[in-house]
Design brief:
Chain A: Keywords: ATP-binding, Cell membrane, Membrane, Nucleotide-binding, Transport. The complex is a heterodimer of chains A (294) and B (250). Chain A has 294 residues and is of the alpha/beta class. Chain A contains eleven helices and twelve strands. Chain A has a domain of 160 residues: Rossmann fold (3-Layer(aba) Sandwich), CATH 3.40.50. In chain A, 34% of the residues lie in helices and 23% in strands. In chain A, strand 1 and strand 2 form a beta hairpin. In chain A, helix 4 packs across helix 5, helix 4 packs parallel to helix 7 and helix 7 runs parallel beside helix 8. In chain B, the strands form two sheets. Chain B has a six-stranded mixed β-sheet with strand order 6-7-8-3-9-10, with helices on both faces. In chain B, strand 4 and strand 5 form a beta hairpin. The radius of gyration of chain B is 18 Å and the shape is globular. The chains are: A alpha/beta (294), B alpha/beta (250). Chains A and B meet through helix 8 and helix 9 of A and helix 6, helix 7 and helix 9 of B.
Amino acid sequence: MTGPLLSVRDLRVAFPTRQGIFEAVRGVSFDLGRERLGVVGESGSGKSMTGRAILGLVRPPGHVTAERLDLDGQPILNLPERQMRRIRGRRISMVMQDPKFSLNPVMTIGDQIIEAYRLHAGGGRDAARQKALDMLEAVQIRDPERVMTTYPHEVSGGMGQRIMIAMMLAPDPEILIADEPTSALDVSVRNEVLNIMDALVKDRGMGLIFISHDLNLVAQFCDRVLIMYAGRIVETLAARDLHHARHPYTQGLLNSLPRLDAPVDRLPVLQRQDNWRDGDPLSESLTTDFPGGL
Amino acid sequence: MLTVKDLNVWFGFPPDRVDAVKAASFAVAPGESFGLVGESGSGKSTILRAIAGLIDTWSGRIEVDGKAVAGRTRDRAFYRTVQMVFQDPYASLHPRHSVDAVLNEALTLQGMDDIDARITRLLEDVGLGRGFRFRYPHQLSGGQRQRVAIARALAAEPRLLLLDEPTSALDVSVQAEILNLLADLRAEHKLTYVMVSHDLAVVAHMCDRLAVMQHGRILEVMTADALRRGAGQQDYTRNLIAASTGYSRS
């Protein structure tokens, strides 16, 4: 396969408000290959909304338009709900920020994974059960037999997040959209979860969209980074070049972080400028360097 | 300013009793900024809540300004000395009370006079103009809400501020503003801080010394310089520092 997994051009998400139309996403364009693509920005920059729009999860009165939204060359923009359901979960999955709110509290972990898997892949209960056990092992959960019989409140946050990832990966999706998957986790657990996702991209050739507000983490984990401000991509660059970012917004974000290795007396504060909203974005290229894999 | 000695905090009853803090001891000098770091569940916030009188199942000794406190009872003088700022500015402000009402209440409870002028001054102290006085929390951003929460804590003119993850719900750009504000206020009002955070870089920036906690115990107390050098005495501390410097591909 040569084309990108996902191709997005001029994606817009609009909400009508009493003050007129509010555009949460204003013309986002990018390609995703079999790579780790980071999407960074502050709250309200439209990064989560971009992920939701791709999956068709923007509820009315929100309105999604795009010049192109293609999955493997097939348009998936505003598909009828029936068809979208065949894509959602099976070909594109999403891991949300907080496992506490994403798992069903009155169903055992095992039943939830089995249900999700059978819905997408069909097959018998026993096969699904075996698959669930395999997936839990793949995300490095010790003693998966026991975890299968527990309820979400009985597992820790890190474990819940790994269970979510296991559930999302059971149908072998081509693309995983991870919306702040590690923000609720401690640093030691965070690195474990990242290792798991990293292995999945490498071993299965999955495309990963990693939405985060943590610039340094994204720089270290991802291959490419999109920086979003006020619903637009202001800069696209290779992750290793993040510290040579040229856009003042990116630089401002990086500088405002306290660092262990570089003590300062005062943290520089981001001075917002109006032209960031509508100025020309700095992009090397929209297309991915990794259409065929890393 | 603050002495904590052999502090134990537990929740529930045997056989379900959970010991959240075990034999924690530390002392904070006047004007110092002291950090508590550790992973979630390590008991760092619980220590602050025990000091503030929000938990009564504790034993040991807590002394504020040389005076020991007991159980959950705190006298008015205590609250004029110690105030607390909470993690989530979206949850810690009453949604139907305006900024004016919030500060008014805090000032009235402290028996302050000249409330009108004090509210104006408090808002200026935390970098909010007069225009914010009659707004409601839903009309404020996360950073502005946290400023209001800080103004409310300052209303009592305390000398010790307990800060429970004051910036972890905020964007990094807003975090920088709030951390700068806290540093300015400390210099201006000669405050003592006890700050809880899971972010080592934030603690190293704000604090002179810090305690590293794991499973309810204080593993070690170290200086911010030692933290920056990665010079922990315990394996756990060194691992924590290594993990926080970022993700490295294995």
